[in-house]
Amino acid sequence: MKFKKLEFDSYSFDIYEVHPGIFATISVNKTASNAGFFDLGNYLIIFDTLMDPIATDDLIKAVKLFTNKEPSFVINSHFHMDHLYGNRKFSERIPIISSSEALLDYHKNSITNLNHLKELAPKEITRLKSLLKEEKDKTKALEMVNDIASWKELKDSSFAFRPPDFIIDDSIIIQGTKMKVQIEFIGAAHTSGDLIAFFEKERICFMGDLLFEKTDPSWASRPDGMSFAADPVRLRDTLKKLCEKDIEIYIPGHGDFCTKQEIQQNIRFLEEYFIKRE
Predict the structure, then answer these.
(1) In degrees to the nearest 10, what's the CA dihedral of 145, 150, 155, 156?
(2) Are the beta carbons of 185 and 76 closer than 8 angstroms?
């Protein structure tokens, strides 16, 4: 795999140009969510926002720095908070797109999620302040400071998430003046309405949470273990199809760059821990 790491100061993620005009942000700790942005020429697309609003601010700065363009629109691959929490950081004039299922799931879960986070905020602020007093590592200390600021935002009575504005229920091709990207509607797989971004000519695919660099068997034993896959069989079959395509670089929702080897490992994981229980 050939890609170039770019110089950019963010405690949250590293930025790679995986092809001219195609950028991936990869979480520094490899557990938080990844994102991407694509300069198609006349369109600038952001694929997923980030859980940490300060990290999303960094994402917006990076887009401006490396493309000198404003986003044309944002795409949410699915409804989970770590992929759309940062929506609120974008101007209302920038439309946000998801599948209809993702939007429905957002509305079903957003109030519960927000109330839960608001309940956690006071304890988390106290805990982080205590840890910060003892932390000697400057990078970790900065991360804690930013986390405290994020939790404080939640306590503001005016705080609100921003849902997607527009929905698609089919795959579309966005043709730019430099390149094109296929936004493929997967449907029920990881969640009930997943989207991916596929660059056929460039052999690159942004997978959202259809793919994890590393999987953990404990996910299957948690009470919410099945949330890993809304439809395990369909997720496995989707991964098989994507593994058969001529793709060199897969960008997972979490973790480092992947190849067909990680696709196959995810397939085995689903078959061992989820599908056998069907």
Answers:
(1) 110
(2) no
* Torsion angle defined by CA atoms of residues 158, 83, 194 and 274, in that order, rounded to the nearest 10 degrees: -110
Tens-binned pLDDT, residue by residue, of the chain (278 aa): 778 999 999 989 999 999 999 999 999 988 899 999 999 999 999 999 998 888 999 999 999 999 999 999 999 999 999 999 999 999 999 999 999 999 999 999 988 988 999 999 999 999 999 999 999 998 889 889 988 988 998 888 888 899 999 999 999 999 999 999 999 999 999 999 999 999 999 999 999 999 999 999 988 876 654 478 999 999 999 999 999 999 999 999 999 999 999 999 999 999 999 997 54
Whichever domain contains 173, its CATH number is 3.60.15.10
d(CA 131, CA 214): 28
The answer as to whether 266 is a domain residue is: no
Query: 138-155 and 53-67 helices cross at what angle (nearest 10)?
Result: 110
Q: Which domain holds residue 112?
A: 102-155
For residues 113 and 193, give the distance between their C-alpha atoms in angstroms, rounded to a whole number. 19
Residues 96 and 108 in one domain: no
**Residue 111 structure tokens:** 């109030």
Q: Does residue 132 sit within a domain?
A: yes
Q: Are residues 128 and 205 in the same domain?
A: no
Under 8 Å between Cβ of 227 and 114: no
Tokens of 7: 């110089």
9 & 61 share domain: yes
Residues 45 and 123 in one domain: no
Q: What is the pTM of this model?
A: 0.93
Shared domain for 12 and 76, answered yes or no, is yes
